[in-house]
Amino acid sequence: MNTLTAVPDAPTTHRGGRWWRLAPIEARLLLRRRTTLLGVLSGPLVMIFFAVVLRPAEPQGWGALAGLGAYIGMLISVYTTAATVFTLRRESGALSRLRTTELTGPGIVVGTGTPLVVVGVVQTLLIGAVYVALGAPLPENPLLLLAALVLGGAFCVAAGALTSTFSRSAESVQFTAAPLLLVGSVAVNVLSTGVDGVLRGILLLVPGTPVADLVGIAWTGPAVAEVAGVPSWLLGLVVTAVWTAVAVVGAAARWRWTARG
Q: What membrane topology does this protein have (predicted)?
């Protein structure tokens, strides 16, 4: 007589499928660290100060200021914070310890960066609410605004991850992040003056700069409808997506889970 022995099913794991559980943990860690929290808050406070002082008289002025505020705020609050956080996690060994869990490498990076994307979107919306209270018109295209903020946040996190691979310590991030901060800030300031032609096309190719233009378009309409026959909003989305992909590929190629010896 044959007997059948029940064999229990093998346990299944879902690697990378629970990155969303890491995101709230990272958010709490982000709020606990005072220097990181100060970096997150400094961008919005600076742009609100400028709005209070300048108070543009024309709608287009508010749109340019909103775009400038979104980009500068994301550079300071999301990009530099992401670079600092990834560097700190690598220095402390947290990244290598997370590698022993069910999370995949991309899941760890996404879970760590997601709170920063949320911070970038929320802070820009709060800045916009203050602008409206100061006399700015409501955004003409909320969907484009949201798309620009989410894509811009993703770019800043990816660029921050790439920058962290060049940073030996959290203190060195201020130097490794400086090139994009300086070039991006200058490009966005020039772009906000309403330049046209070849110069505008060149400025929109600077990493992340189209985010400012997209926010301005979403707020009060495009100052310049087309660039070389391409709608400004479409060019902005494509260029930002391309730079995000470049940053992701670069970070993946140089990524280290342990601190440099």
A: Multi-pass membrane protein
Cα distances (Å, whole numbers) of residue 84 to 164, 169, 220, 235 = 7, 8, 34, 30
The alpha carbon of residue 53 and the mean position of all alpha carbons in its chain are separated, in whole angstroms, by: 27
Helix/strand/coil for 227 = strand
The Cα–Cα gap between 145 and 16 comes to: 30
- First and final C-alpha spacing in the chain: 65
Pairing status of strand 230-231 against strand 226-227: antiparallel
Residue type, 179: P
Bridge partners, residue 230, by sequence: 227
Segments of the chain with pLDDT less than 50: 1-16
Burial class (CB in 10 A: 0-12, 13-18, 19+), 36: buried
What CA–CA distances, in Å, run from 211 to 5, 20, 72, 100, 155? 62, 26, 10, 36, 10
Non-local CB neighbours of 76 within 8 Å, separated by 6+ positions = 39, 42, 43, 46, 181
Residues 64 and 217 sit within 8 Å (Cβ to Cβ): no
**Strand, helix or coil for residue 207:** coil
Torsion of CA 32, 36, 37, 39, to 10 degrees: 180
pLDDT tens readout for residues 146-194: 999 999 999 999 999 999 999 999 889 989 999 999 999 899 988 888 7
pTM recorded for the entire structure: 0.86
DSSP-assigned letter for residue 169: S
